[in-house]
Amino acid sequence: xxxxxxxxxxxxxxxxxxxxxxxxxxxxxxxxxxxxxxxxxxxxxxxxxxxxxxxxxxxxxxxxxxxxxxxxxxxxxxxxxxxxxxxxxxxxxxxxxxxxxxxxxxxxxxxxxxxxxxxxxxxxxxxxxxxxxxxxxxxxxxxxxxxxxxxxxxxxxxxxxxxxxxxxxxxxxxxxxxxxxxxxxxxxxxxxxxxxxxxxxxxxxxxxxxxxxxxxxxxxxxxxxxxxxxxxxxxxxxxxxxxxxxxxxxxxxxxxxxxxxxxxxxxxxxxxxxxxxxxxxxxxxxxxxxxxxxxxxxxxxxxxxxxxxxxxxxxxxxxxxxxxxxxxxxxxxxxxxxxxxxxxxxxxxxxxxxxxxxxxxxxxxxxxxxxxxxxxxxxxxxxxxxxxxxxxxxxxxxxxxxxxxxxxxxxxxxxxxxxxxxxxxxxxxxxxx
Length: 433
Ligand code: CMC
Hints:
mainly alpha; Rubrerythrin, domain 2; Citrate Synthase, domain 1; CATH 1.10.230.10; 3 domains; three-stranded antiparallel sheet; about 5% strand
């Protein structure tokens, strides 16, 4: 017999179905609740709400487990790279050699952007935030490929694979152009002979006179960073992508909304916020001790950025992997005397021992190290979250598809508990106090 949940409201009982996932996750199916009882559920922040059924990513926050399409993140980090993992997340299976070659060829073909798009960058103020530019550019990209952005899911799905490859490739070019435009530097065009990460570093840092030669440890660290961010189930930005997709919107607009959602400091913006926090601690001559005390006092402006996670309550498996690669890259780059690094390590050690953090199960998350790694690689701070967006693109794309192909898909439309004024009569201007 399939399990059910019994709900008692006053003297009436209601039976609700229970859904069990492939990893034995259980959910009470409340879809018929309002019709049956007149009640809705209330879950501010959605911490207890399953918004969809998904085949893409599995997370067990208590045990620190993260798997893409069933494959443990540790195995992918060890054996795969970003492009192959992107293929896996987007298509559901690891590619064969022929599929991998074809996907890489599509990335190469799609790397340049339409020359008219280059002029868009001139219109943004020099100090515009790269996340604002990236979000605008991704939405605009759809205008240059109208046959892929019809807002008709059936038609857009026919071209899913092509659109996915196009976005995965062009987001990297757009990101590099954003950086170059912000520095007043001429654009550097993609090369056909370079792999994904090396090509990105080339478009960021080569000059007209000298090609940028990526140190293997640096491109490996970047590759790993992107792979570790490829998907993370129903986080704020991915849920945003699904929300936008549920209205029938095309893939370009949906991922553009994902970029906006990612920007905030509690989500993808945390990697930049970590460095800002470390800089301000350093500027105040603190070694981290005073800051920790202020964070413990619950001061919202003194939250320890890069610590805590809604889902991971023991450790963030991505943080464990990225920390190792960070140490390798630092050793290779011979970075030993960065005062921010010393403060970061002191904060990490102190917070791991302090009862405030231990009792609330606040551990360093992936962003604590990823901000430091980006800094060591020479990526400017305001580009950190853009890097996260490049990495998260496969997950957004796959989640868009899951929403678009669902034959029973309904527009996302949560309800609310209204707490405003009860009905009252309009007051003419001359009678208002
Ligand atoms: N520093 C100090 N105290 C904290 C922190 C922190 N980073 N995070 C949570 N707390 C405290 C919080 O004040 C609360 O204490 P109390 O129970 O006394 O009121 C308790 O821990 C529970 O916090 P919460 O705000 O209810 O937790 P949440 O699940 O809503 O928030 C979070 C999760 C990630 C937004 C939060 O931990 C945070 O703001 N961390 C810093 C920002 C950050 O690093 N974000 C990146 C997350 S990983 C990347 C991603 O997946 O987006």
